[in-house]
Amino acid sequence: MRRKIWASFVCASGLVLACSDDGTAESATLPTSTTDTSETSTTEAPTTGVPTTTGDPTDGDSDTSDSTTTTGTTTGDPITGTTDVDTTTGTTGPDPICGNAALDGDEACDGTELGGATCESQGFDGGTLACQADCTALDVSGCTMVTCGNGGIDGQEACDGADLGDETCVSQGFEGGTLACAANCMEFDTSQCATCGNDALEVDEVCDGTALGGETCETQGFAGGQLACQADCSGLDTTGCTTCGDGDIDAGEQCDGPDLGGATCQSLGLGNGDVTCTASCQFDTSACVPSEGLFVTVRADDNMLRKLDPDTLVFTDIAPLSVDFDFGDLAWDEADQILYMIDGRPAESLWTVDLVTAGATLVGVHGIEDLFGLAWDPTTGKLHAGARTPYGFYEVNQATGAATWIGNPNLYIDGLTYDSKRDELIAIAGGEGSLFKIDRLTGAPTVLSNNGFINDAGLAYHPGKDLFYAIDWSGNLYTFDPNNNYQRTQLAADLDPHDGMEFIPGLAP
To answer: Residue 201's pLDDT is what?
Structure first.
């Protein structure tokens, strides 16, 4: 029965050359798919063939010139004569490859393959067209315009001579400068444009960050300082420069070298002494000494430790020393705030003295006969002493009291003190009354003045007044003026006999 139906269909469709009377096909031209019509087929479904189809499977075109080949399984339908294509196992061509000199995918060009484009087709007059390295666009930089140089922008020109189309260095992304046109009219010349802030000195920039063009504060007329560049590179910033060092007081300077503007320790409310000027043109008041302070001395007949006000010349008793004192001296260690004493003849020892109770504490025995003068030297941080018999200049150990010989001054050191203004050790000779400077390293003397006889005395320097004071066993009180050849002036007479003397800054009455 199936054969008769198929034969009838074939004859009816005109696909046979001849049919027999019983409707069977004698010869036929059939589709390329093959269907088994033998009696042994027992399935109702169409048979599946496995031919390989080249070309477009949807239209039966077997043209083998197509560049894309799809390989799949076809299923023939013996009723309709159509062929289905299974594309699930098909493959497509390779991805476009830039650089293979062939146009693939979305490439605008590839190497020398320009798709037929020329400079002329791109609106230029001539030149050589190329392809950009990534194949996304044509490179027209080699193209030319005959009209380039006529001063007007034509065609693809970016500019022409002075005609920049209203473009500037700023519109091109620079900070400033002068924009120009390239010789081929296809691009701008930005070589004269500048970017402020890149530490490079470029056109129209006075400076740029650290690039100062060799300029300094000194070349700008200042004494020193740090020159800088303004934020917009339009000029130098001299706010860090200074005129300090030119000898004239300028804005922001308290002084300049020797020019103190008339300032003194007293005018600054800092007592007495000398003001100097620092390298940064500010006052140095380290030598100023408050005028407040008192002398301490010892009354000879009862070993009474006393205060003496240099302004009123009034004495205030503290208390008798707890040890005997005879021709000794006092020294104030300002660094450690300690009052030292040598007792002269009684114990030939070094002591510390309590300023409240006058109690003396033994440091140690030095054993030097007639060691009468004592001073603390802040420059060396040492105690120095002078002896009468024999003449001698010593260093005294502040921990043990031991005395070490330095040299022979060939003078009788009766009183010794430190001149903080001149950094000198000054001594007074009992009897002849001369003042002399002692070399702290050798003990060698330099005579400063000789104002005549003075009894055994104590000597002290008042830094606030810049005067030396001396009090002696005859009951006289004197001053010596270093600014007037150490001229001696008598302040008081008929006082009790005293010896040993020291000025203590800040000591209250």
So the answer is: 84
Q: Residues in the chain, how many?
A: 509
| 201 Cβ contact partners less than 8 Å away, ≥ 6 residues apart | 207, 208, 211, 213
| pLDDT digit string, tens, across residues 92-113 | 444 468 999 999 989 999 999 9
Of the candidates 294, 293, 308, 291, the residue with the CA atom closest to the CA atom of residue 475: 308
What DSSP line would sit under 341-364, residue for residue? EE-BSSS-EEEEE-TTT--EEEEE
Q: Would strands 193-194 and 176-177 be described as parallel, antiparallel, or unpaired? A: antiparallel
Task: Check whether 9 has a pLDDT greater than 80.
Answer: no
> First vs last Cα of the chain: how many Å apart?
152
Backbone φ, ψ for residue 465 (5° rounding): -100, -10
**Tokens 């009992």 -> residue:** 430
Put residue 123 in one of left, alpha, beta given phi > 0 → left and psi -120 to 50 → alpha. Answer: left
8 Å CB contact between 139 and 147: no
Rounded CA separation 447/469 (Å): 17
| 382 close to 393: Cβ distance less than 8 angstroms | no
> Contact, 114 vs 129, CB < 8 A?
yes
The verdict on pTM exceeding 0.85 is: no
Contact 445, 436 (CB under 8 A): yes
